[in-house]
Amino acid sequence: MKPRELGRRVTARDLVWLTVIVAVAIVLRLPGLTTGLWRDEGSTYFDATAPTLASALREIRLAEINPPAFFLLMRGWLALAHTSDLTMRLPAFAFGVLLAPATYALARQAGLRAGALVAAAFAAVAPAGIVLSSDARPYTCAALLAALATLAAFRVLAASAGEPVAVPLWGYVAATVALEYVSYTGLLLAFGLALGALAAAVVASGVRRHAVVLAAASGVAALALAPWLLSLRGVERVSPAWLVPMDRGQLIGRIFEQFGFVVPSAFMHVQFSFALLIAFVAAVALRRASPMVVAGAVALVAGLAVEAGALLREPRYAFVFTPLTDVLAVVALAALARACAAFVSGRERNLRAGLAVGLAAALAISLVQGARVQFSAWKHAVDGRARSGMRALVADARPDLGPRTLVVVAPDYLGPSLGYYLRDRAAEGTVGFANASQPEHFRCCAAWRRPALVLTAEREILARSRAFARIAFVYDPGAVDRGTVPYSTALDLRARLARDLPVLWDHRYAGAFESVGVTLFAIPALPAIPRTKS
To answer: CATH topology for 390-522?
Structure first.
């Protein structure tokens, strides 16, 4: 399909079906708008509402693993819409819904017709997309920009020899730069598309000139992030100490795991089947694949491989690649269906067709085995469970969280969500465990590894508590050590305080992402401050 023919081949029936798909995407995402904010979303609030633009950029440099564009967008949005759980999530919700038509357009540009609606449906119903569309974080914005950037890249590769490509080329640069300033994974997409364009030039010599220009444009787009990266020099950024190091020999398994995060399914049996399908398209059907498919497949594999090596092994980080994966999954399924049809009809009985039939059988078995898990994933994505117990905790405990109560947050990663729901309370009455001041700005700081951490924290809390009548100890009941950070010591601190102070009451509140508890301690007239070693 020539790019200039893309619009005129979109029929009224396609538009009707696309409207239905978008409506389904909206309905599936609506329950998530009312589930309460959790800690990462609390960080978005404090990044976006810093007193000045300079202080906002400083907070983002210190604490975020994403560049500033989304948080600055949220800053402008909240200034207009004011702050609530709903307004915090509406931008991510809108980006998540728009991802379905953007994926449709990307699939059409890749040469799909009816399959483009399937790709859009994948984007609409994927559990990860449903969950992240109600998360006030940059992930759906990044995925939408990735779809637009890849669409422009495919438009360049699909152009005929004499056709001008300046408009889609500049569109690609603009979308990629915007993506890089929303998520660092934009660099991985630019890197992958540059490699993919060069691979497409090898397979199809007719696109060589455009492919080289696209690869050069990817380099220009990557250089555009340099001013922000240079601004990070000398800044003591948030430590990645919670990441679990990868043992030698684990990279291949982690790459497959990354594929499992981005394929349009939620259960392990099908994750590996779709990874094999992508390999099937690359290794078997390559000579019949369009330059866009070749470039997309190379970009996907290269980007996920680098991401796996960088230890970013969570669905939210890989989500930027989902539009491309949805399209390639449909291409793979279509190629598989054609090969199986040729085998059944007797037109093609060679090894390639036989492998396709065997792969189709394995996929069918996986679908049957994983149907229950897939249904469970959808159910959990749309059931409206509270993301965090913090909203319920603050609502119940607010009478006891007045100015005469010292609020202690442990571990400190609970600080952003607690700070969000207590944003009308004086900040000087709240302290963290390792980060004593401003716990609402989470830092994974070196203080977690200081000697006698629990004893030192207890001494500081009791010394500060002399000006208060109570201590409200907000904690994570399931705190465990992650990486090199001993988060579980927060529970040790709570146990020491329970030994030294009277306990008035204790309650716990479950959350899908963040379960929390609060213990209210009475403070004697002169609380004893321990002086012995822990």
So the answer is: Rossmann fold (3.40.50)
